[in-house]
Sequence to fold (560 residues):
Amino acid sequence: MSENQQPMDVNEAVRKSWEHFGLPAELPPCDFQSLLDVLEDAVSHFPDNPAATSLGGTLSFAELDTFSTRFAAYLQQHTQLRPGDRLAIQMPSLIQYLVVAYGAFKAGLVVVNINPMYTEVELDYQLNHAGVKAVVVFDRFLGIVEAVRDQTPVETVFVTSPFDLHPPFKRRLMSVVLKLMGKAVKPGRAIPLQQVFAEASDTGYQPVELTLDNMALLQYTGGTTGVSKPAIISHGNMVNVTRQAWALLEMSGLERGKERIVSPLPLYHIYAFALSVTTGVYIGAHSLLVPNPRDIKGFVKLLRRWPATLFSGLNTLFVALLKHPDFTRIDFSGLKITLSGGSALASGTGKAWQDKTGCEISEAYGLTEASPIVSFSPRGSGKAGSVGIAVPETELRIVDDEGKALTVDEHGELWVRGPQVMSGYLDFPEETAKTITDDGWLKTGDIASVDRDGFLRIHDRKKDMISVSGFNVYPNEIENVVSHHPDISYCAVVGVPDEHSGEAVKLYLVSTNPKLTADDMHDYCAKQLARYKLPKYIEFRDELPLSNVGKVLRRELRDS
Fold:
């Protein structure tokens, strides 16, 4: 801050950013009382528009409404489930995910999103902790559910196959193919989803009354910094996220009923769930779901067939796509927005993406506890390295270690308050008290700052910050420098104990050049980083541990 500038309150800068971009401080009144109203609105406006596509099969909004109602009717007529009970969804991103989620909501149930790759131990914990009474599982993972079922409150298991909602001929054909390949799964005690749709009648559905205060999701945090905790996400949280997201997307030139969203992140992750299952439905967008985003060849093929107008991803995915030889054959002429969230975006990746696609990457920031959106980078903002401006109706606070509010351009922990913030963690009262203040502020645990134009920058996780001889070192800053090296595919920085400086910087690298040495990388870093930020230890690896959404797991590296 220059000598002539007076300290500015963070939220004064936030309001300034809204005014600059023409965003309202408060959104127009909304009549929606739950996510059911979001779907009903989309069906009334876009009944014949495609709602979602996976593995070549597509559902229209009218079909999504019909199938979800049938599922709800079956739950009401053939199970003991009652409003407020928990239903877990354990499947990759398939069109039936949307059907099951909205069917559960129509029956008044709470959805528990579960990673299909969980081990028996992880699954047992979540099913028991959440009190799950029903599970809808992808057939490949049925064995794991059955292995723990009798030790949990689960009463009913539904099983779904990849092509359950495809046209009858294709479904039968693929069933034969899977049997011949030895990949067909016998349902055992589980109820096939196809049986549900055959036996249920949407005319037998009894509507339930839901309000904004009703719980919609139990969304477990990733558990990368400790035990996995379930955030209580209400219908009000998700309705408000939908409205906040649409205000930003509309500002960026998107139109209801005319967009195609490519969402490679799994729907059990709150980022993708909010984008495709709620916001995408509201705007009448066609969501292209990617069951296996690690299949880059198949992903590129999908993008060539269905050019996106909105693409969402994260750094590791952008890097993998950019390296594919057929990437330049994709038509990006209609791409309006590229979103990056879930992990920090390397500036070198962002530049390469814009050079190849003509569309800059708009960084967004959020966390599970905020359902998940907090900020978004408007197109053309020119604020490289920023995660954008706060979404409407959201307050930001930057605080020091004593909880004192700081002003613009000062670094401290980011606190967030808004209608998208969870009420707390289920059955974790102490963690809730540590995370949510009495007046509704969410303590994010991220070190951040807000500049005078209202743009938010995330410098690092509070727990990931490294203290070298009393100097704060942010891993993201070093990783951003290293990622520009032409021979580096992936990198990660952690702090390790050091008898002289308290902590030292350790750099992990995945390189495409077998001749690259640690000395080479040290010299490269020395030209761009202060001495105390330089990696003291450098280790090359064939790969780095990643979470299910592609985040580098620094905790695993620290513990290795």
Notes: The mean pLDDT is 90. The chain is about 30% helix and 25% strand. The chain has three domains: 10-28+333-461, 35-236, 466-559.
